[in-house]
Write a structure and sequence with these properties.
With 293 residues, the protein is an alpha+beta fold. The chain is built from 9 helices and 15 strands. The two termini are 24 Å apart.
């Protein structure tokens, strides 16, 4: 019998996975796979690593939001554990899963994992120490995901982020940033930057339609300093996917970059708080295998 580990966050989204855990285990046992559940708590990722090293697992599953997937991927990549990952998205936005066309339906997610088809995807590496799969963001609005209460996100989903962001429009401030890529150096006053791996971010669909999870490149969106009225207009352009040609938006594509600026600039990595600038980001091509349709 094969063995697999499922790492789940009981507080993600509408908190449905803990109630369906018996069903999930049963589905895998039917396919001769013994599934070991691990509940994310306050004991750190060392426990996950300890469990993975104690037994011979064929694959691992992350059930939660983008932060849960990020935690598991960092355990695997930083310890050179070569196991494919299945994703059961149950968070607020599930941007990584949506970029891979992984459905939100639990049964269909399990069907995909059991079928065993995988794709190789990129990951960003920050300061040679921490991986991310979807986004690295900084500046105004970067704290929306981790400063929005879990109950608010449970009740309103991605709309909770939009409401929180709109409430901050009048308190914005710009910071002079220096962005060094493979081909150019940009230094200006910016309100926000977003390094993107896939197509989706913060619940917004197709932020960059051309983005590809397996091409080895990151896409960087930069929001220039602008008036609040322009920012409000831009926000609604983002909601309608009509913002890339806005004069306040800059788009860069590169394999490596360094971003320097004020150390107080708020940073977020896959929706979780990060330390401070400067950051150096390198994209590692096809470092991870993920179960897909």
């Amino acid at each position: 019998m094969k063995k697999a580990l499922i790492v789940y966050n009981p507080m993600s989204g509408i908190r449905n996975v803990p109630r369906r855990l018996d069903y999930i285990i049963e589905r895998f046992v039917e396919k001769d796979i013994l599934l070991t559940p691990f509940r994310i708590g306050n004991y750190g990722n060392e426990k996950i690593l300890e469990i993975l090293q104690q037994d011979d697992y064929s694959f691992v599953i992350a059930s939660g939001g983008d932060g849960t997937v990020n935690s598991l991927v960092n355990v695997i990549n930083r310890n050179n554990i070569k196991l494919p990952i299945g994703v059961i998205p149950s968070g607020t936005c599930n941007d990584f899963a949506r970029s891979l066309n992984i459905p939100m339906d639990l049964k269909r997610c399990i069907d995909i994992i059991i079928a065993g088809n995988t794709a190789e995807v990129d990951a960003g590496l920050i300061n040679n120490e921490f991986y991310f799969l979807n986004t690295c963001a900084g500046g105004n609005f970067a704290d929306v995901s981790f400063n929005t209460s879990s109950e608010f996100k449970k009740n309103f989903g991605p709309l909770a982020y939009y409401m929180k962001a709109l409430g901050e429009v009048t308190n914005i401030r710009s910071v002079n940033l220096k962005i060094t890529t493979d081909n150019e150096v940009v230094e200006q006053d910016f309100l926000f930057f977003l390094i993107l791996n896939g197509k989706h971010a913060a619940g917004f669909h197709n932020v960059i339609k051309e983005a590809d999870l397996s091409d080895g490149f990151m896409d960087i969106l930069l929001l220039r300093n602008c008036a609040p009225i322009d920012l409000a207009s831009l926000f609604f352009k983002v909601m309608s996917n009509d913002f890339m040609n806005d004069r306040n938006v800059m788009w860069l594509r590169t394999r490596n970059c360094t971003i320097e600026g004020n150390s107080d600039f708020i940073l977020s990595v896959d929706g979780e708080r990060w330390d401070k600038l400067p950051v150096t980001v390198n994209f590692i091509n096809k470092i991870l295998k993920v179960f897909v349709k």
